[in-house]
Design a protein that fits this description.
Helix content is 78%, strand content 0%. The protein is an all-alpha fold. It has one domain: Growth Hormone, Chain: A, CATH 1.20.1250.20. Helix 2 runs antiparallel to helix 3, helix 3 crosses helix 8 and helix 9 runs antiparallel to helix 15. It is globular.
C-alpha cells in the first residue's frame, strides 16, 4: 500500500539539477501570468454576459483545437527539436495575451472576440504543452520524472493561488485589461529560461525519412500503443471521466461564486485560491514519492474522493460559504493526485520512442474533457442552476472510480513495454 511519508530530499535533489531549476524559475513567472489571465477571462466573460453557457463556451474555445491538434503535436514533438517548438508556441501565446489586453483596455472587447482569441490560444497550447512534457525527462532523467512533474504542479498551483489575488487587485484598481498585459510580459521569463537550457541535440526517431512523411500513420501508431498498454489503456480513459465531470468546476467558478454564494470578484478569487492551496498540498505529497509504485491505486482512489467532494460542495448553502471553501480545498488536493499521478504514470511506463505520442493522448483527453464538461455543465446550469449538474457530475465520477478500483484492483505500473511501432 502506498505511503504518504514526507521526505523532501527528493524535491531538493531534483531542483539541484541546473536545467530543471532554470526551467522551473522561468515557468513560475509565466504560470503566474497565466493564472492572472485565466481568472480575468472568466471574470470579464461573466461581466459581459452573465451566462453560464458563455463561460462554458469560452472555456471550450481554448480546447477545441486540442482535439484536432494535440494528437499530431505528439508526433511533431517526437520528430523535431522540443525546445524550439516550446519557444515558438510561447511567442504566439504572448501575442494572444497582448491582443486581448489591447482590445480590453481600449474598450473594443466583446464575448465573440474573447471566444476567438481563446480559440487562437487553443491552437498554440498543444504545441507548448506537448513539447514541455517531453522536455522534462531530458532535463532530469526517467528516475526523477515523477518528482519533476509534481514540483511543476506545485509551482502551477502556487500561481493558482497568487494569480487570482493579483488579478483581483488589478481588476479593482486599474481594470481587467491590465491583467492580460501582465500575462503578456510574463512570457518573456519562460522564453528566456528555455533558451538558457543546456540540452543534448535532438535526435528524431524518424531520422532518415522525409520530414513530414507518415505523420498520420505515426499518430495512429501512438494511439494504438497507448490504448493497448496494460496500464495506460485503462488509466487514461478512467481519468478522462474526472477531467470531463469534476475538473470543469474551475472554469465555471465565476458563475458559481456569484449565483451559489452571492459573491463577486472577491469570492471568485477566494474559491480559486482555496483550490490552489489544496492543489499545492497534493503536489507536495506526490513530489516526495521516490517511485511510481502504487501510484495507479492512488490515482483512482483520489478520483473517488474528488467526486464525493464535488457532490458535497454542490449542496452547501450560501450561509456555509467557509465550509464550501474547505471542501474545494480537499477536492483540489485529490484532483491534483488524479492529474499529476496519471501524468507521472504515463512518463514512468511509456517507451521512449512513444513518449511524445502517448503524452499527447493523455493531454488530449485531460484537456478536451474539461472543455466539453464546462460547456455541458454550464449549459445545464443555465436551466437548472449549478447545484444539480455539479452533484450529478461528482456522483458519477465517484461511482466510476469506485467501480474501477473494484474491477482492476490496481497496484502499480509494470515495467515499461517496448514498442517497435515507429509508424
Amino acid at each position: 500500500m502506498a505511503r504518504f511519508d514526507i521526505d523532501f530530499s527528493a524535491i531538493r535533489n531534483t531542483l539541484a539539477i541546473r536545467n530543471f531549476r532554470i526551467f522551473t524559475a522561468g515557468n513560475a513567472v509565466s504560470l503566474l501570468g497565466t493564472w492572472v489571465q485565466r481568472m480575468a477571462v472568466g471574470y470579464l466573460t461573466w461581466e459581459l454576459t452573465k451566462s453560464g453557457a458563455w463561460l462554458g463556451a469560452v472555456a471550450m474555445a481554448e480546447f477545441i483545437p486540442v482535439i484536432m491538434l494535440a494528437p499530431i503535436t505528439g508526433v511533431i514533438a517526437d520528430r523535431f527539436d522540443r525546445r524550439k517548438i516550446a519557444v515558438f508556441g510561447q511567442f504566439f501565446a504572448l501575442l494572444q495575451a497582448a491582443t486581448l489586453a489591447a482590445l480590453t483596455i481600449t474598450g473594443h472587447i466583446t464575448p465573440i472576440l474573447i471566444f476567438m482569441l481563446q480559440l487562437f490560444a487553443g491552437v498554440v497550447q498543444p504545441l507548448i504543452q506537448t513539447a514541455r512534457l517531453v522536455l522534462v525527462p531530458m532535463m532530469v532523467g526517467r528516475e526523477r520524472v515523477g518528482n519533476a512533474i509534481a514540483i511543476t504542479s506545485t509551482i502551477f498551483n502556487t500561481a493558482r493561488i497568487l494569480g487570482p489575488v493579483i488579478g483581483g487587485v488589478i481588476i479593482t484598481t486599474v481594470g481587467v485589461g491590465w491583467s492580460f498585459a501582465l500575462n503578456a510580459v510574463s512570457y518573456f521569463g519562460v522564453i528566456a529560461s528555455l533558451l538558457s537550457l543546456n540540452l543534448p541535440a535532438h535526435v528524431s526517431y524518424g531520422k532518415g525519412r522525409a520530414v513530414w512523411a507518415g505523420m498520420f500513420n505515426d499518430m495512429v501508431a501512438g494511439w494504438r500503443y497507448t490504448f493497448k498498454h496494460p496500464v495506460l489503456g485503462w488509466i487514461i480513459p478512467t481519468v478522462g471521466i474526472a477531467s470531463t465531470l469534476t475538473w470543469p468546476i474551475g472554469d465555471l467558478m465565476a458563475g458559481i461564486a456569484d449565483e451559489m454564494f452571492n459573491r463577486g470578484a472577491a469570492g471568485l478569487a477566494a474559491m480559486t485560491s482555496a483550490q490552489g492551496v489544496g492543489a499545492i498540498m497534493g503536489g507536495l505529497v506526490l513530489a516526495q514519492r521516490p517511485t511510481a509504485e502504487g501510484l495507479s491505486r492512488i490515482v483512482i482512489g483520489a478520483m473517488v474522493i474528488n467526486g464525493i467532494c464535488v457532490a458535497l460542495f454542490s449542496v452547501i448553502p450560501e450561509s456555509l460559504y467557509l465550509v464550501g471553501l474547505g471542501i474545494l480545498l480537499v477536492s483540489s488536493f485529490f484532483s491534483v493526485m488524479v492529474g499529476v499521478g496519471s501524468q507521472s504514470l504515463t512518463q514512468a511506463v511509456v517507451d521512449d520512442n512513444m513518449r511524445g505520442r502517448s503524452l499527447s493522448v493523455w493531454y488530449t483527453i485531460t484537456r478536451a474533457g474539461p472543455a466539453f464538461g464546462a460547456l455541458g455543465l454550464g449549459t445545464l446550469a443555465n436551466k437548472f442552476g449549478f447545484e444539480g449538474p455539479l452533484f450529478a457530475a461528482g456522483a458519477i465520477t465517484a461511482f466510476v472510480a469506485a467501480a474501477t478500483l473494484f474491477i482492476r484492483n490496481p497496484q502499480g505500473p509494470p515495467p515499461s513495454i517496448d514498442s517497435n511501432q515507429d509508424g
